[in-house]
Amino acid sequence: MVVGVLGVIIPMVPGLVLCWAAVAVWAVFGDVESAGRWVVLGVATMVAALGIVVKYAWPGRNLKRGGVPNLSLLAGGALGLVGFFVIPVVGLVIGFVLGVFLAERLRLGDFGKAWPSTKHALKAAGLAMLIELATALAIAAIWVTGLTAT
Asked: What phi and psi values does residue 89 have, to the nearest 5 degrees?
């Protein structure tokens, strides 16, 4: 569970999946047979699914409002992936920002016009991370509650 929560902050670690998997392993392989474990797993599954949907839908809507095209986001993602291997951990963020900025610079033809789109992309990435962290912490709280109740 702790690795899952930390995985939200560490790039390329599937934090929500690990948090949910911790609850699933606890429910399936627990010492005592209890229906409460399955209820906890069900609630954790619903929270995880909702968190994943919201993680992509809310920031995506904000990006569309900000006028950031999908091609710029794709360029940011590609350069972020390259940056992750060139500069471990922080390279993902640096590459993403640089990729969006360069794609917007090419599209708009001006450095000054490219920066607002880059800021929108940064805000969306931060919002997605906060949503994922809140979801991981909610799953952890559900699990701890289930631990104490069963």
From this structure: 70, -70
What is the mean pLDDT of the segment spanning 2-29?
89
Which pair of tokens denotes residue 97? 């920002």
Work out the angle at residue 81's Cα, subtended by the Cα atoms of residues 140 and 87, and round it to the nearest 5 degrees: 90
C-alpha–C-alpha distance, residues 77 and 138, integer Å:
28
C-alpha span between 96 and 6 (Å, rounded): 21
Domain enclosing residue 102, as ranges: 2-149
Contact 1, 140 (CB under 8 A): yes
Number of Cβ within a 10 Å radius of residue 71: 12
Looking at residues 4-25, what average pLDDT do you find?
89
For the chain, what is the domain count?
1
pTM: 0.82
Residue 138 has pLDDT above 90, yes or no: yes
28 burial via Cβ count (<10 Å: 0-12, 13-18, 19+): exposed
Residue range 66-91, pLDDT digits in tens: 888 989 989 998 998 899 899 876 78
Residues sharing a CB contact under 8 Å with residue 26, sequence separation 6 or more, in sequence order:
37, 40, 143, 146, 147
pLDDT at 150: 78
